[in-house]
């Protein structure tokens, strides 16, 4: 017992010394953290990322892993809430993650990023679109495989004005980092265009049962369309209440609404709704293979941001392989300088962390499914 205790103390002292001098003992596995909403109202956005990570890791491990080591998944739920996301990030850091796939919602992502930054951990989101996450320069450890909200808002405004030939627009948002950020861009783009008039700009309270007050404001404003920044739980209620009042006001929203759950909840009232979302890459051979792998493994079609998450997992693990280590500087440099083939196409990341070559398309609910408009 004495000898075993002595050996333990030697190892412990060496471990403390190594940490103090900034030298890490090589881990037995490459640890990939996966953070997002895995329960609650927005779980349909987070669970597809877990499945994407599982499939990518399974494939890579079967081929020998990364740097000759197996990849280990560490999955943590943040419920898309900033106050939970900080705890999620702290836990993943304490568990020794090398890179993180997530978070999903912009507010939760922003809350967690500082923790990862202080620990020199690269983070890549498949869905957090708030422009400030990359444009502020505050988070050099952050990357994403989706375009930012300024591009999304630009597409929504151009579609309303150029394609639908509308003039009077109501802009709504859910007061969150994601929804309000997108709405502010849309409002600014509209106000700069002489063809457009913002007849209503309003924030709503997420989770409310009744949105009849704001629906009535939309009606009184005589808006031809609503541009909404937010997520499907609120959008489905607003659209449903609008249609029950026999309002034919066009509803245009974002990738927070371009989800099958919106259609399932709004049902017949979802018909005709427009929403921006990642470009359709269904003809990409890697996308076809990734989708088929999901169907074979889980017996269902993949959900929201699945291909963006699949691509992010590939990009993160490829960067470690290219860097030859899990060193922060080497991995982030590889992300910015090395192209990688993904279901989204060949991508790499600019100095801000945005994926080069990734963008949005406009979709419309037609006969109960979202269809990309060409």
From TrEMBL:
Family annotation (InterPro entries): Leu-bd, Leu_Ile_Val-bd, Peripla_BP_I
Keywords for the protein's UniProt record, in alphabetical order: Amino-acid transport, Signal, Transport
Signal peptide: 1-26
Domain of life where this protein originates: Bacteria
Domain Leucine-binding protein: 29-366
A Pfam family assignment: Peripla_BP_6
Record Gene3D superfamilies: 3.40.50.2300
GO annotation terms (biological process): amino acid transport
Protein family: Belongs to the leucine-binding protein family.
Descriptive protein name: Branched chain amino acid ABC transporter substrate-binding protein
Taxonomic source organism: Desulfosarcina widdelii
């Amino acid at each position: 017992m004495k000898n075993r205790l002595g050996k333990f103390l030697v190892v412990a002292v060496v471990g403390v010394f190594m940490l103090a001098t900034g030298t890490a003992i090589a881990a037995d596995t490459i640890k990939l953290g996966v953070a997002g909403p895995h329960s609650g109202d927005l779980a349909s956005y987070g669970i597809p990322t877990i499945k994407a990570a599982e499939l990518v890791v399974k494939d890579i491990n079967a081929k020998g892993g990364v740097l000759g080591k197996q990849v280990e998944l560490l999955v943590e739920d943040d419920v898309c809430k900033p106050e939970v996301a900080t705890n999620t990030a702290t836990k993943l850091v304490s568990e020794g993650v090398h890179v993180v796939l997530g978070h999903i919602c912009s507010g939760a992502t922003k809350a967690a990023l500082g923790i990862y930054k202080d620990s020199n951990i690269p983070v890549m989101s498949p869905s957090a679109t708030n422009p400030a996450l990359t444009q502020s320069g505050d988070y050099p450890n952050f990357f994403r495989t989706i375009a930012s909200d300024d591009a999304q808002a630009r597409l929504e405004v151009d579609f309303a004005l150029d394609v639908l030939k509308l003039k009077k627009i109501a802009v709504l948002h859910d007061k969150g980092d994601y929804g309000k950020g997108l709405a502010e861009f849309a409002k600014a783009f509209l106000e700069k265009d002489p063809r457009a008039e913002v007849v209503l700009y309003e924030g709503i309270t997420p989770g409310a049962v009744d949105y009849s007050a704001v629906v009535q404001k939309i009606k009184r404003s005589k808006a031809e369309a609503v541009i909404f920044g937010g997520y499907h739980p609120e959008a489905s209620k607003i659209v449903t209440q609008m249609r029950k009042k026999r309002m034919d006001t066009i509803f245009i929203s974002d990738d927070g609404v371009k989800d099958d759950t919106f259609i399932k909840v709004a049902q017949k009232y979802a018909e005709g709704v427009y929403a921006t979302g990642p470009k359709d890459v269904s003809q990409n051979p890697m996308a076809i293979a990734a989708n088929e792998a999901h169907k074979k493994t889980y017996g269902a079609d993949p959900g929201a941001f699945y291909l963006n998450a699949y691509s992010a997992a590939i990009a993160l693990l490829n960067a470690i392989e290219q860097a030859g280590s899990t060193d922060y500087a080497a991995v982030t440099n590889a992300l910015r300088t090395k192209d990688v083939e993904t279901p989204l196409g060949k991508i790499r990341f600019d100095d801000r962390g945005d994926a080069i070559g990734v963008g949005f398309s406009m979709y419309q609910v037609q006969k109960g499914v979202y269809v990309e408009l060409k």
